[in-house]
Amino acid sequence: MAKLSVLTGRANIPLAQSVASALSIDLGHRTLENFPDDELHIEIHDDLRDHDVYIIQPTGPPVGDYLLELLLLADACIRAGASRLTGVIPYLGYARQDRRALGREPMGARLVAELLCTRLHRIITLDLHNAAIEGFFSIPMEHLSAVPLLADSVRKLIPEDNMVVVAPDQGAVKHAQRYAGLLDLPLAYVHKVRLSGAEVAVQSVVGDVRGKYPIVIDDMVSTGGTIISAIEALIARGCQPTIAVAASHALLVGSAPDRLAALPIKNLFFTDSLPQPASSPLPLRVVSLGRLLADTIKRLHGDFGYRF
Ligand code: R5P
Fold first, then answer.
1. Does ligand 1 have an atom closer than 6 angstroms to the CB of 169?
2. How many CB atoms neighbour CB 83 within 10 A?
């Protein structure tokens, strides 16, 4: 019967610790450091022969570094004898590059999928930007969602009864519909046009938002541009200036925290799929994925022959 091992890269050590503690095991021992020329040096210190191994590593910024770290860790585990190797990637970088939008561009999501399939036997991930990306992988994938956890948190913390769920762009409508269903609330939608990687413009707001408390939903917040322009449009159309935001992945790159802090946002609900700062100018409500990931690992390991 295979033994369970859980290792982590450097992308989100607090999350890996909470998964290990929910499983009542220690994280696997490894050395992970950079050589003077920045190449990675990895060494596994545990005997992994015939083990069922899980590597926890979201591929957020620096995306390329953490992706390569995951691939090298996976390679080391295979060479250390792991019999099954699962990548636990709660945030998958490059997922937004799932099509060629302009012409002569790479298919980033497809290439990343192919690279991961060279070393992993299975992937656990969460709220992919586009669920169809699963088709790029030739290995089994457990595609989890944090929507029920986040909706639960929203329900507990926001007492107003005159609320509306808002999708800040067309791509977020399906995601927002799930929240609207779970919270039993109406849905509105912002028609956004992307001008560049960091700039967006709002064309119109569809749905009744006047006088209501909006909960703006997205799968991720990166520069904050999408959320900020949606909130500005909602305020211009007369919504209540007590705004909540919920998203599975908080990248919050560059000046995003300060730009968001300048808006009347009372609650920001995120998961810890990516590491969150100990202090922030934002009213963050971070929902941990530790238990959800641990339960998923337990179930998958159980299928394989469960033994600690
Ligand atoms: C786009 O399609 C995504 O769902 C998010 O709306 C977007 O990536 C968020 O990025 P930013 O915060 O930079 O606008």
1. yes
2. 15
